[in-house]
Write a structure and sequence with these properties.
- There is one protein chain.
- The chain is α+β, with helices and mostly antiparallel strands.
- The chain has one domain.
- The chain is built from three helices and seven strands.
- It has a seven-stranded mixed sheet with strand order 3-2-1-4-5-6-7.
- A hairpin with a 4-residue loop joins strand 2 and strand 3.
- Helix 1 crosses helix 3.
- The two termini are 28 Å apart.
């Protein structure tokens, strides 16, 4: 977990809609068109070294005005994946931990359980295809891919609360050590603005 510190320069939000279809176009499996809309926030921050950087967030929002001092919390996996998991707004004395289900799944997609399940599905599918018939091998492979997705989602389920806990610890560290007001000896009265609803953790 590391910090990206800077001053908000400008911000904009817009919606993006993606359209996709499912089905084979037959009588029993007609084509169905689906759409999914996500909110995208784009903003620029001026870092402490004077450089400017553009930040893009999908279905997440940093609530800040131009000139506000921000500490963005960025989680990183061992294989180089990264994503913003929350932020600290110095000027409003508030912080937010994002819903990080998507990042947790992305981290799980690079994990050994996901790759091992997919590789096993490929090996078994190829073996059955050559030993008996192609269709049976293909079906086994597709079932294996489906199992790999379940493994990824399950792995992500366990990563998500750990990621959230690390983000909370990072916030407390940022309060004490940020470059704007950081002072290990001072108390920084800061209340959470809120945590976005997290379906993984709901009963």
């Amino acid at each position: 977990m590391n910090f990206v510190e800077g001053i908000m320069l400008e911000s904009s939000k817009h919606a993006e809609t993606s359209v996709y279809s499912t089905g084979r176009g037959t009588r029993h499996d007609p084509v169905r068109v689906h759409s999914q809309t996500s909110t995208v926030q784009e903003f620029w921050i001026k870092k402490l070294d004077g450089t400017e950087s553009q930040i893009t967030l999908h279905d997440k929002e940093v609530k800040a005005r131009e000139g506000h001092r921000l500490v963005l919390l960025r989680g990183e996996s061992e294989d180089g994946l990264s994503g913003y998991v929350g932020y600290l707004n110095i000027d409003t004395d508030q912080y937010v931990i994002f819903n990080n289900k998507g990042i947790a799944r992305a981290f799980a997609s690079k994990g050994l359980p996901f790759y091992a399940t997919g590789f096993l599905a490929l090996i078994v599918g190829v073996f059955v295809a050559f030993a008996s018939e192609f269709l049976a091998g293909f079906l086994i492979f597709m079932v294996g891919i489906w199992c790999a997705i379940i493994v990824r989602n399950t792995h992500g389920y366990f990563i998500d609360p750990k990621l959230t806990e690390l983000a909370k610890e990072a916030v407390q560290r940022a309060i004490l050590t940020n470059s704007f007001t950081g002072n290990p000896e001072s108390e920084f009265p800061m209340e959470p603005l809120g945590e976005e609803p997290n379906p993984w953790l709901q009963n």
